[in-house]
Amino acid sequence: MSQPQLPVSRLPGASGVSVSFEFFPPKTAEMETTLWEAVSRLAPLAPAFVSVTYGAGGSTRERTHATVKRMVEETSLKPAAHLTCVAAARSEVNAIIRDYWAAGVRHIVALRGDPVGGAGSSYEPHPEGYHSSTDLITAVKAIGDFEVSVAAYPERHPESATLFTDIEMLKRKVDAGADRAITQFFFDNDLYFRYLDVVQAAGIEIPILPGIVPVQNFKQTATFAKRAGASIPAWFAERFAGLDDDVATRRLVAAAVCAEQVIDLIDRGVTHIHFYTMNRADLVYAICHLIGLRATSAASEPKQVTNQAATQIATEVATQVATQVATQVAAA
């Protein structure tokens, strides 16, 4: 009798699966320590690249640049700097692009950016700025031989009338020179695969990396998902039911749920996972271990997370994530 074929996720090394990580620039000295602890923990997993976000309205421009520059100078990571069109003239944006090139950055995540007035307000381009992400991509490619990643939305962007409107926008980004797309986070893998079918039918051939966010606080995540236009399946919500005050169990469930999603993606043919880390390494590190990734040095050996530390992590993440998750992949 022949042996049943193992799922891809159970093959040694998860059959060549690669990962990338997203971080956000710190606002305080304490948050900076947390960020670099996460970077140090995850770097030995040899991610294909790491991205650093750009706050709404360009509010973290200097901190993003400083974080990316430090990554280039002090690590072997390949950073991808987020860049938007918001609240800046073309000359300012071009100067930033040239500064990144001079600093050794060769990968930019080009985004239109969220409206200055925040979610729900209308987008108004800077009178002397780039009007869309396609304009920005064209400028980036003209200034240097950058890799360019862009945003994709399996459930359409909240400002888009239909999914097909989003697909048309993605096609324009590809025509402008985009090399890959990273999706908004999602929790139902079938949505992602249906989206891939539509994208491929439109003749778009660039890689579409699935963006995955581990859930630290379900109520907060559900709120952000609503703002971002990402649906929460009933079965997914049920996994976290009754755990609002049980931090330790909630973290275990979060790890199991995220691992389940990632393993299903791999078993269905996905070869690259992009994690929205929220500057926290432990959960992401554990999931990477489950799919066969191993650190390249002893310095990355896992550390114990106590109940007290878990409580502190959950509290900090609940406040930080409120201003970060909904803008992880900015408006197209």
Structure, briefly:
By secondary structure, the protein is of the alpha/beta class. It has helices at residues 29-42, 61-74, 90-103, 133-143, 163-176, 189-201, 218-228, 234-239, 247-267, 282-290, 307-320, and strands at residues 18-23, 50-52, 79-84, 107-111, 147-152, 180-183, 208-209, 211-212, 272-276.
Structural class: alpha/beta
Tell me the number of structural domains.
1
Give start-end ranges of low-pLDDT stretches: 298-331
Share of β-strand residues = 5-15%
Total of helices: 11
**Strand tally:** 9
Using the CA coordinates, give the radius of gyration. 19 Å
Level of helix content?
A: 40-55%
Mean pLDDT: 85
Rough shape? globular
Instruction: Describe the sheet with the most strands.
Output: 9 strands, parallel
Separation of termini?
A: 53 Å
CATH architecture: Alpha-Beta Barrel
- In CATH, the topology is named TIM Barrel
Give me the side-by-side strand order of the main sheet: 7-6-5-4-3-2-1-9-8
Name of the level-1 CATH class: Alpha Beta
How do the helices and strands follow one another from N- to C-terminus?
A: EHEHEHEHEHEHEEHHHEHH
